[in-house]
Amino acid sequence: MRYTMVFLAIVITALTIAGIAIADRANAMSFGSWSQPQNLQAAGADDAVNTTALEGCPSISKDGTSLYFASNRAGGLGGVDIYVSTRSDVEDPWGAPVNVGAPINTPADELCPTPMRDGHGFMFVSARPGGCGALDIYATRWRNNHGWSSPVNLGCAVNSAADEASPFIVGSELYFSSTRSGNSDIYVAPVGDEGAVGDPVPAPGLNTAANDARPNLRRDGLEIFFDRPGECGGIDLWMSTRPSTEDPWSQATNLGCGVNSAANDLRASLSWDGTRLYFGSNRTGTEGNQDLYMTTRERVPAGE
Length: 304
Known about the structure:
By secondary structure, this protein is mainly beta. The chain has one helix spanning 2-27; strands at 29-31, 38-39, 55-60, 66-71, 81-86, 98-99, 110-115, 121-126, 136-143, 147-148, 152-153, 164-170, 173-181, 183-190, 201-202, 213-217, 223-229, 235-241, 253-254, 265-270, 276-281, 291-296, 299-301. The protein has a single domain, classed as TolB, C-terminal domain (Neuraminidase, 6 Propeller), CATH 2.120.10.30. It is globular, with a radius of gyration of 18 Å. 44% of the residues are buried.
């Protein structure tokens, strides 16, 4: 437990400092419309990024050079594993992905990776033995010359006997989704200066009688993306905004059937600058069970 608190305290400090900087920039900017999504391989990624298996839960590092995702492709440690694809520059294509290996991946399922803003670790969920229930939230950090640390379970206040998914820390709040109430809902938990995580509560204004799942926020905490059944066909990507982190979330809006499809579109993840949204989909034209896609938007000066 002490290790978990220290780990989160380091993460929170990095996130808070970075969040202040981007909030100042975001307040002076707005965004255009989302483009027609592209399969990552159509956008130039290595042919091994998407396969005939399942690829999903994409999440990009702060510097835009590492893309973490989950896949059940052959050659893993068992079940669904976490992979990472890298590139030298944000304008370069994504390279061939590699399995992040043990101790992160196990014979159980590991998925929903979320890189830390300081570039030295990530959170993810796992069904490995010894947790609080089914899929639990874990955290790991990179140790120079020693590789990834043994993942630490965030504890049975955050985790439950049900499934948790898509952990994301912004400021002093931990967002994630959970099926603890029966359906999937989005939860938020306070995180103290010493890394202690308080009891989670349903995120006000974001949940419905449907399944609301897999949240991902803009780095200033003023925009959130998540999954919910929608009018485009299957599960759609939705979003909500708020003027400040002290204000309530707006009524959620569907990203529209130009971004969403008649199939399932899942677990969106926003780039640091807010212009690229990565997600998984099994829409027509997908190579396998599910592929990784990307849609983009332009940043424009406020008032234009």
